[in-house]
Amino acid sequence: RSFLQTVGRVTLGVVVLSGGAFIYVVQRDRHPGQQAAHDPAKKTVVVLGSGWAATSLLKKLDTEYFNVVVISPHNYFLFTPLLPSVSVGTLEPRSIIQPTRYITRHKKRRVEVYEGEARSVDVKNKTVTFVDNSDIKGAVSATTIPYDYLVYAVGAENQTFGIPGVREHSCFLKELPDAEKLRTRLMDCVETAAFKGQEDAEIDRLMHIMVVGGGPTGVEFAGELHDFLVDDLQSWYPELANRLKISLIEALPNVLPVFSKQLIQYTESTFKANKIDILTRTMVKEVKEKTVVVQDESKQLKEIPYGMLVWAAGNTSRQITRDLMAQLPDVQNQRRGLLVDEYLRLLGGDGVFALGDCTATSYAPTAQVASQQGAYIARALEQMAKKEQLEKTLHSLRASSNSKPEEIEAVVKQINKVSKIKPFHYSHQGSLAYIGSEKAVADLPFFNGNLATGGVATFLFWRSAYISNLLSARNRFLVLNDWMKVKLFGRDVSRE
Ligand code: FAD
Ligand code: NAI
């Protein structure tokens, strides 16, 4: 007995000590350390954006070689794969973002971060003009800065195909405020449907949530919405829950076109079991305030009433990207995005690298591609800086009469080594999507083949993959805490 007590005390001591050590390390690590100031002798890298491509670059870039300036309308990084979970309250908005300053806090040289929207890039004079587009503006709210290298990673915006009414009446799911707005709108529909004396037809309209686009965004949102319905609405609004109808509209013959056939079927049958209506080969033609006009397979037009419409029909270029293309009409002629060479150098733009969703390449516009491109450019820039430094050394060695030939030869060898920048190569790690009711689908490269898997085990894999991919211990802690909170207390149904 006494032996067990001793073990118990020892164990407790170890737990307390390691807990204390963990808290000490986290606290010591959470603020910026000593950082060098910008050096006028170094080249300036201006980074536009704070998304997947830009953040991956910032994490990897050695700031010893450069002065780095980041410009983005959001002063944070958003972990987009978990954004659909925010739209129904499974996760809290701040759990999946990370301030950009937090990401750059341990860099050798201080990174300048400006919350601003780049309005134009002058590729001839190598400058960027950006503005403060927030609510509060100071005496200076627009400025122009020069760059030596520009990392252009502004992402894309929602594709509406110019369909009337989309911008005015739809909700989107691309940025953090979109998910917050969705959550509020959803609860507004539910509360309005629950209003005393509400008419039957109006209840059915308000409780009809339409999702346009059967790509991963639309599918994941529909899956999350189904969970909210089953886990929470059914107990808080029992008289309304069975009136909630989720419809997914897709112009193509099936949803999730990038996934394997087996997983498409699995998703479609899971949705059927979850009473999510999939309307394939159906095109939205117009969105009105309370109804949507669709064209079905037989070219028939139908007008369907809805309470909330979520538009997830893919990406298109931002205005600034279209303006940039217009400056280089001879080489930039793809509406889909910017054209780059195999080293991600913008065609026609000296010193400009374009990465991620703003480009038109053979890769899908995904976080995986963008982050690998960011890491690649960080390495490429470092090699270029090292080469420049070595060339200066070589120049002075050659100019000096005291230099030994072996010394010169060694530097030449090093220059040859760093000059070899390989073209960008994408390594696909697989595709994952959550489809609701604690099921996910995954297409994973497996040895030389492909492993297509779906179900509850895949859901656990999905969760662990995303937890490990989150940017920081802080994000992991917050997301795990949210998941536990929802398991214990359910989602919060208050409308903010
Ligand atoms: P973004 O990450 O969009 O970053 C663009 C940045 O540029 C942002 O910080 C923005 O604020 C900033 N910006 C915009 N305009 C300007 C301007 N004028 N000046 C300066 N900065 C500007 N991909 C996956 O691989 N796996 C997934 O599970 C996955 N899930 C997703 C879920 C959702 C809901 C969505 C919408 C996308 C998902 N994606 C996923 C796709 C992925 O998010 C994108 O491919 C990825 O974000 C592209 O990275 P990016 O850096 O090019 O653009
Ligand atoms: P998407 O481009 O993949 O899908 C949009 C869908 O909308 C298309 O299937 C298209 O046919 C359909 N559509 C377009 N116009 C329509 C209309 N008028 N009526 C009906 N249907 C219409 O867009 P999404 O889902 O936003 O994804 C964008 C990118 O982000 C993709 O590369 C995707 O792979 C990636 N992504 C990845 C995720 C994951 O891996 N889990 C999650 C979300 C996005």
Task: Explain what the structure shows.
The protein has 496 residues and is an alpha/beta fold. The chain folds into three domains: 1-30; 39-156 and 317-378, 3-Layer(bba) Sandwich (FAD/NAD(P)-binding domain); 166-316 and 428-489, FAD/NAD(P)-binding domain, CATH 3.50.50. 40% of the residues lie in helices and 21% in strands. The strands form seven sheets. Strands 5-2-1-9-20 form a five-stranded parallel beta sheet, with no helix packed on it. A five-stranded parallel beta sheet has the order 11-18-12-13-14. The mean pLDDT is 95. Bound molecules: flavin-adenine dinucleotide and 1,4-dihydronicotinamide adenine dinucleotide (NAI). Flavin-adenine dinucleotide binds next to helix 2, strand 2, helix 3, strand 6 and helix 12. It is an enzyme of class 1 (oxidoreductase). This is NADH:ubiquinone reductase (non-electrogenic). GO terms for molecular function: NADH dehydrogenase (quinone) (non-electrogenic) activity.
Produce the secondary structure layout:
Blueprint: H1 2-29, E1 43-48, H2 52-60, E2 66-72, E3 76-78, H3 83-86, E4 97-99, H4 100-103, E5 112-115, E6 117-122, E7 127-131, E8 142-146, E9 149-152, E10 157-158, H5 166-169, E11 171-172, H6 176-193, H7 200-206, E12 208-212, H8 216-236, H9 238-241, E13 245-249, H10 261-273, E14 276-279, E15 283-287, E16 291-295, E17 301-305, E18 308-311, E19 315-316, H11 319-327, E20 352-354, H12 367-399, H13 405-419, E21 431-436, E22 439-446, E23 449-455, H14 456-469, H15 473-489
Parallel strand pairs: 1-2, 1-9, 2-5, 9-20, 11-18, 12-13, 12-18, 13-14
Antiparallel strand pairs: 3-4, 6-7, 7-8, 10-19, 15-16, 16-17, 21-22, 22-23
Helix pairs in contact: 2-12, 6-7, 12-13
Bound molecules: flavin-adenine dinucleotide and 1,4-dihydronicotinamide adenine dinucleotide.
1,4-dihydronicotinamide adenine dinucleotide binds at residues 81, 163, 212-218, 220, 249-252, 257-258, 283-284, 312-315, 364-366, 431-433.
